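Q: I have two molecules that I believe assemble together. Could you output structure tokens for the complex as a whole instead of separate predictions?
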Amino acid sequence: MNNKKPPPLMRDVVINRIFEAAKNDKDILFISADLGAAALDNFRDKLPDQFIHAGISEQNMVDLASGLALSGKKVFLYAMAPFLTARCYEQIKCVIASMNLPITLIAVGVGLGYDHATLTHFTPEDIACMRALNGIEVLTPGDAEAAEEVANVAIMDPDFRYIRLDRQGLEPVYNGGFKSIFDQGFGHIVEGKNIAIFTCGVLLRKALLAREILAEKGVDAGVIDLFRVKPINGRALASVLSGYNAAVTVEEQSLEGGMGSAVLEVAADQNILKPVRRLGMRDGYVVVNGDRDSLHELYEIDTLHIVNAALELAERF
Amino acid sequence: MALNDLEAKASWLRQELFKMAMRQKKGHIPSSFSCTEILIALYYGGVAKITRGQPEDPNRDRVIVSKGHAAMSQYPILADYDFFPKEELERFTQKDGLLGMYADFRIPGIEGISGSLGHGIGMGAGFAMAARQDNNPYNTFVIVGDGECYEGSIWESAMFAAHRKLDNLVVIVDRNELCIMGKTEELLELGDLEDKWRSFGWYSCNVDGHSFDELMPALNLVGKTDRKPLAIIANTVKGKGVSFMEGRAEWHNRMPSDKQIIEALIELGIEV
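A: Yes, here they are, computed for all two components at once.
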């Protein structure tokens, strides 16, 4: 029997951190569009004047936040990922991005996180659409430690940020090392020589597993956690990329405009000519019941497909 | 300001706006002329507490023209308040000028950004909540178009502001019954807006939006509404003051011919 404690939910870690800061700063306001969390129950119980339930009204939530931010408030918006992004995208563009207001958008359940809820709750496009916004910082913490540090930064240095939290608790990847690499914008978690595997969020663990399988097959792969797709650290990423023969990118995002596209943009802009194979969601989604692992298989972004993509590339070198 | 002085000020604003629009043939005249008296009542009737030359005063009342087509209607007033040099009015929409077709936060006295409809009340609710939290006495006034009330976000914000008892928030609906393609009641019926706002928990009333006799007492209800936000349905005429534009949807973004300019100048009392 496995008695191991499950990893904490990122949302609880983040909200607890904001709660601690909010106790000493009445200008911190936390607004939810009817998404809860255990930590949020505590927040609204202890700091009722700093919690706002916006109703299931994301458009109003964003407009409201801009008025509050223009009045000097440090505003955190919190909702399920699809409804905090595409649902109120025009509001975010007009009243946050245009004025670059220090508002933090905290989305839960990015990618395929709401696995059984299917397409309405998936966000195959959130990286593409959000990183197109003026002045935004887009962050995908890969475990609870990373999520806490991201929360720290959002509190200490309020800015226009989009924080992409996984719905599930994720097994730790960082062991106290995330803070030191935060400014870099990515973590070169395992270094390799042949194939670079770029990913972020939930798929980090599958990428690490794929790396182990590849090692058994004689392919030396490295894993890069590209947790900040914007602003992207093009120069440092180019330097990493140039140390490999080829790269695989894998994500729970559309192939058009997601993290993999961002890697290609870096390669092009920095004159790095390397074969890159992108794994992500193709057009022609199907509505299917099943858990996240089975969805990864369906969309061909699971461990096996990462391994196969890497092997195909490795054969060339 | 006495009522007849306010009327003179309204004439002044229409004259300034028409001259601004004619320089580059840019701007939305009818939208601006339907809310002229509303803005004059706010800025010169002693309703909005705003200090000349101090656009950043933290205690200032906030005025948001959410119906961005009428953004220009604030500009002569803000210049008159010494928020920026009057010469800027002559550079309206021009390269290197401060004042654009729609208003933005770079302009002293403008509280946000306009051009896209349905944002002003939510933003205004944010200002009103912040005022409440900071024990700041200022009020927030938001002018929306009746066509703007088609936006769902308006009603999200309406519900929210009433629930939060934001009686420091006032919405003035410029009810000119026109949008770009025609009459609102024919295109998609808005119906009884006073009733709609009331049913959302607001204190709501109907006034003649060109009558200071009716506008002033309604605006002065702010803070006296039993903890309800205040919605004033101001019944107006789009294009008011230029007879050939009045109540005619096709003038929304059209510019008059040379002959029509002369007619308008005469009607507006501008020396030809």
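A: One point stands out. Chain B touches chain A at residues 104-105, 111-113, 115-116, 118-131, 133-134, 152-153, 156-157, 159-160 (CB under 8 Å).
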